[in-house]
Amino acid sequence: MLGFKNFLLDEDGIGVVEMILIVVVLIGLVLIFKNRLTTLVSDIFDTIKSRAGEV
Questions:
Q1: Are 37 and 30 in contact (CB under 8 A)?
Q2: 10 Å Cβ neighbour count for 37?
Q3: Residue 43 burial by CB count (10 A; 0-12/13-18/19+): exposed, middle or buried?
Q4: What confidence tens digit (pLDDT) does each residue in 15-42 have?
Q5: Does the pLDDT of residue 44 top 90, yes or no?
Q6: What local confidence, expressed as pLDDT, does residue 13 receive?
Q7: CA 50, CA 38: separation in Å to the nearest integer?
Q8: DSSP string computed for 12-53
Q9: At what angle do helices 34-52 and 14-32 cross, to 10 degrees?
Q10: How far does CA 41 lie from the centroid of its chain?
Q11: 6, 9, 34, 55: which has the fewest Cβ within 10 Å?
Q12: What is the per-residue pLDDT for 41?
């Protein structure tokens, strides 16, 4: 019974759960703002291409 109590009080897995939640939130944000992010990245690369000849 003491081993089970120690298992319940062990908090080593908390960091893993936090990391998984952060990844899930980031994936959700990417899915929600997918169109805006795609447009933003496309505009950035177009600007880089157009200004690359100036250097």
A1: yes
A2: 13
A3: exposed
A4: 778 889 999 999 999 999 999 999 999 9
A5: yes
A6: 67
A7: 18
A8: TTHHHHHHHHHHHHHHHHHHHTHHHHHHHHHHHHHHHHHHHT
A9: 70
A10: 17
A11: 55
A12: 94
